[in-house]
Design a protein that fits this description.
This protein has about 400 residues and is an alpha/beta fold. It folds into two domains: about 5-30 and about 295-405, Aspartate Aminotransferase, domain 1, CATH 3.90.1150; about 40-295, 3-Layer(aba) Sandwich (Aspartate Aminotransferase, domain 2), CATH 3.40.640. It has 15 helices and 17 strands. The protein has helices at about 5-10, 35-50, 60-80, 95-105, 125-135, 155-160, 180-190, 205, 210-215, 240, 280-295, 295-315, 345-350, 365-370, 385-405, and strands at about 15-20, 20, 25, 85-90, 115-120, 140-145, 165-170, 195-200, 220, 235, 255-260, 265, 320-325, 335-340, 355, 360, 375-380. The protein has a seven-stranded mixed β-sheet with strand order 4-10-9-8-7-5-6, sandwiched between helices. The protein has a four-stranded antiparallel β-sheet with strand order 13-14-17-16, with helices on one face. The chain has a two-stranded antiparallel ribbon with strand order 1-2. It is globular, with a radius of gyration of 22 Å. GO terms for molecular function: cysteine desulfurase activity; lyase activity; pyridoxal phosphate binding. It is an enzyme of class 2 (transferase).
Length: about 400
């Protein structure tokens, strides 16, 4: 049984006040808060078990290496990857996507080759492909988003042409909450011989993910949204794609031998992990994912679906609010605007009530451009949020309207 009171008790920051009001943290789309077990794991790692990994034969190095490398299997289980070696550690989704851009796409794509994107992508899944456009003449093909925030998988598949070499798509929009049927996208793209890269930064937070069932080639996740530390993350890479990749960065750990005249590389995934990694961050990510799996992703998804449904109903009752993205099956992420009030003003008023939201472009300028906006206010919910916090948000929006009407 999902016990929201117990879950909330696991997150110490939720007990604090902001501006004399109980904290209502609705900026989870940017970064989620951390449960005590993650905080304790980080403290223990630094206080009692810290050493560099892989390179030492002493006790502390062996302990750190065992815990660090054990996370690879935890992530594989979280994503249902077939092998732990399908998981490459990164500092987050941004590094994971850049790894694909530099290690897989850059040596394979030529001028005139195409990458298919949607306008709903986060900048992390746009800018690396713009690098290839600027530097190699690669063409970016854009799939539009519906007025209700819908992202049609068939439209993505139909955008694939004879020169398309990659489809790069989000699993869940960080602005609209729209969930993309990436399984259908992968099936359609593979039928045309095109691999699929998925930005799972939001999808893995809100949905059970099975990369084998989805059939995707690349799936990137970031730790700080998954109740883990910032600076942690990973990317699933199908073995066939790993074999086609060259190393992204060079340094220690990713090599087999180094001489004056030549180098040989370590086998994947180590081939793509140069230098001293984020050891403690990665250990913390493993604990965070264990925490999520203990709650069960199905329970988390059901709880957040209830919040999304309730928030959608309450927001629809406010005739002074416009919500961008109104799909009934969306994740609990709401972008909204209010006539007469700038999103920054809304955010400031809400903050005075102890409510943390985000205002701006949310690193998704093409998407906001498509809605004719320069900014919006975003409330994004997590496993520890409640219906009472939805009500607090609604009350605060009424106050905003009274101030700016």
């Amino acid at each position: 049984m999902f016990d929201i009171a117990k879950v909330r008790a696991d997150f110490p920051i939720l007990a604090r006040e902001v501006n004399g009001k109980p904290l209502v943290y609705l900026d989870n789309g940017a970064s989620a808060q951390k449960p005590q077990v993650v905080i304790d794991a980080i403290t223990t790692a630094y206080s009692h078990e810290y050493a560099n990994v892989h390179r030492g034969l002493h006790y502390l190095s062996n302990v750190a290496t065992e815990k660090y490398e054990g996370v690879r299997g935890i992530i594989a289980r979280f994503l249902n990857a077939a092998r732990a070696d399908d998981i490459v550690f990164t500092s987050g989704s941004t590094e994971g996507i850049n790894l694909v851009a530099y290690g897989w796409a850059m040596p394979r794509l030529q001028a005139g080759d195409e990458i298919v994107l949607t306008v709903a992508e986060h900048h992390a899944n746009i800018v690396p492909w713009h690098f290839l456009r600027e530097r190699q003449g690669v063409v970016l093909k854009w799939v539009e988003v519906g007025a209700d925030g819908a992202i049609d998988p068939q439209a993505i598949i139909d955008a694939i042409g004879p020169r398309t070499k990659l489809v790069a798509v989000t699993h869940c929009s960080n602005v609209l909450g729209t969930i993309v049927d990436v399984k259908a996208v992968a099936a359609g793209a593979h039928a045309k011989g095109v691999p699929v890269m998925v930005d799972g930064s939001q999808g893995a937070v809100h949905l059970p993910v099975d990369v084998q069932d989805l059939g995707v080639d690349f799936y990137a996740i970031t730790g700080h949204k998954l109740y883990g530390p910032s600076g942690s993350g990973a990317i699933y890479i199908h073995p066939d794609r790993q074999a086609e990749m060259r190393p992204f960065m060079g340094g220690g750990d990713m090599i087999d031998t180094v001489t004056r005249d030549r180098i040989t590389y370590a086998a994947p995934p180590m081939r793509f992990e140069a230098g001293t990694p984020g050891i403690v961050q990665t250990i913390g990510l493993g604990v965070a994912l264990d925490y999520m799996m203990a709650l069960s992703m199905e329970n988390i998804a059901a709880h957040e679906a209830d919040l999304a449904h309730y928030a959608a109903i309450r927001l629809a009752q406010l005739d002074f609010i416009e919500v961008q993205g109104t799909r009934p099956d969306k994740a609990a992420i709401f972008s909204l605007t209010m006539k007469g009030a700038h999103p920054h003003d809304i955010s400031t008023v809400l903050d005075k009530r102890g409510i943390a939201v985000r205002a701006g472009t949310h690193c998704a300028q093409p998407l906001l451009d498509s809605f004719g906006l320069t900014a919006s206010c975003r409330a994004s919910f997590a496993v520890y949020n409640t219906r009472a916090e939805v009500d607090a948000l609604i009350d605060a929006l009424h106050l905003c309207h009274d101030l700016f009407a």
